[in-house]
Amino acid sequence: MKVLGASVLVMESLTLGFAILLATKDQSTFGIIYGSVVALQLLLTAGLLKRRSGFYVGSLLQIPMIAFGFFVPAYFLIGVIFVGLWAAAIIVGRKGEAARAAFVAQAGEKA
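and the corresponding structure tokens:
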């Protein structure tokens, strides 16, 4: 769950960085600063996923990430796709960790 979540957050940060490049020619300085702050927060939150609170912060950061669509309208769609990937990372990650725990428990019984 941690690896999948971190990879989604890092990719969101990189994609937002590229979207900032699109915003430089059409938007004000506020849009560029806003995107930069959100991208940096996403990148730093990837390191917080060692704790449960990191997933809450990552989930909350999905809102300002989608809101960047007000500066680059195509980012509304990209943001929704990343929210789906974030949810999938949490769901698949939990199933993977449960399967791994069951496998470790089963291997411990055989030993």
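(Above: one complete record from the training split.) The helical segments are 2-23, 29-48, 52-60, 62-67, 75-110.
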